[in-house]
Amino acid sequence: MSHLVRIAAGLLIAGLALPAFAADPAKTATTAKGPALTDAKGMTLYTFDKDEAGKSVCNGPCAVNWPPFAAAADAKAEGKYTVVTREDGSKQWAYGGKPLYTWKNDTKAGDTTGDGVNSVWHIATP
C-alpha cells in the first residue's frame, strides 16, 4: 500500500473526512457548434458583449430572457470561475470574468439557439 493510501485509510478509520475538492460550477459539452459550457442540466451557457468585466448589466427584462447562471450566496471562486454580485444582490457565476447566462428559448440540453442573438450573445466556450 502506498504511503498516501495508508494515510487516507487511517483518517477514515479515525472518522475524519478527507478534504473535498470543489467541482466546477459548469460542465463542458459538445454541441452542433462545438464545445460549450453548460449548466448541470446540459443547457448551454452564454456570455453578453455588453457586460463589463466582472459585472452583469443584464437586469430586468433582459434577465427574464437570459436567466443568470445563479451561484449560491456562499459560492467561492475557483480557477477561471468567479462569482459576481448582481444589481439585486444575488450571485452569478462568471467564466474568465464574463458573467454566464442560459437562454429562455433553448428547450433541451445541447440547444444553441441563443448564439448570435442581436450579435451580442455568444456561446461560452471552455
From TrEMBL:
<dbReference type="GO" id="GO:0043448">
    <property type="term" value="P:alkane catabolic process"/>
</dbReference>
<dbReference type="InterPro" id="IPR005297">
    <property type="entry name" value="Lipoprotein_repeat"/>
</dbReference>
<protein>
    <recommendedName>
        <fullName>Lipoprotein</fullName>
    </recommendedName>
</protein>
<dbReference type="InterPro" id="IPR014558">
    <property type="entry name" value="UCP029720"/>
</dbReference>
<feature type="signal peptide">
    <location>
        <begin position="1"/>
        <end position="22"/>
    </location>
</feature>
<dbReference type="Pfam" id="PF03640">
    <property type="entry name" value="Lipoprotein_15"/>
</dbReference>
<keyword id="KW-0732">Signal</keyword>
